[in-house]
Design goal:
- This protein is α+β, with helices and mostly antiparallel strands and about 200 residues long.
- The termini are far apart.
- Bound molecules: FE2/S2 (inorganic) cluster (FES).
- The site of FE2/S2 (inorganic) cluster has 10 residues, from loops.
Length: about 200
């Protein structure tokens, strides 16, 4: 470093210990630089962590699923069971075309659209069967019995706290390979909570 000159004599060396102390302004500047640098590092990190964890907090929606062709549900009042096949996903993984449940479709005389009930028992979730002999739905786990309209046969005498859970149904016209229109039955497959009187979606 070049020594400062003394106009009236030889150069004067400045000792390091004699340097002026840092001012308040330089301290604030340094602190601001540290804060800015920290934010620059942490912001992308926080965004990455949030993106990674976001599936855990995503509210899953009830899928709308095609379960049958309308022709497969004649209007004879007879319940028919159909599997519900849909993509299933947990927080980070998608499992295509999984069986996620089953529905009963019933179409009475002259009805354009069937009624749908999930086959999951509202008591504890067992698969409800149908007995065409006495026209009753029966759960094999704790003997809850339901009429064809989904209500409980013995009301509060059943262990199931409510009737079978109905599902929203819509009919869609689809184009077949031969160009004809096919009516298909779609249901919104809602997974209801079990063991309670109220009908509340589980997710
Ligand atoms: S699970 Fe159906 S009666 Fe208990």
């Amino acid at each position: 470093m070049k020594s400062p000159t003394n106009p009236s004599g030889p150069p004067v060396a400045i000792k390091r210990g004699n340097e002026p102390p840092p001012t308040r302004r330089s301290f604030v500047t340094a602190a601001a630089a540290v804060v800015t640098g920290t934010i620059a590092v942490l912001t992308p990190l926080g965004v990455g962590v949030a993106a990674f964890l976001s599936p855990l907090f995503r509210k899953s929606q009830s899928p709308k699923v095609q379960v049958a062709l309308l022709d497969q549900v004649p209007d004879d009042g007879q319940p028919r069971v159909f599997p519900v096949i849909a993509d299933r996903e947990d927080a980070w993984t998608r499992y295509p075309a999984q069986r996620i449940g089953a529905v009963y479709l019933i179409r009475n005389k002259g009805e354009a659209k069937p009624t749908a009930f999930t086959a999951k028992c509202p008591h504890a979730g067992c698969f409800i069967g149908y007995s065409s002999g006495n026209k009753l739905f029966k759960c094999p786990c704790h003997t809850s019995t339901f009429k064809v309209d989904g209500t409980r046969l013995r009301g509060d005498g059943e262990v199931a706290p409510r009737g079978m859970d109905p599902l929203p149904v819509e009919i869609r016209q689809e184009a077949a390979k031969d160009g004809k229109q096919l009516a298909s039955v779609w249901v919104e497959f809602i997974d209801f909570r079990t063991g309670i009187k109220e009908r509340i979606p589980a997710t």
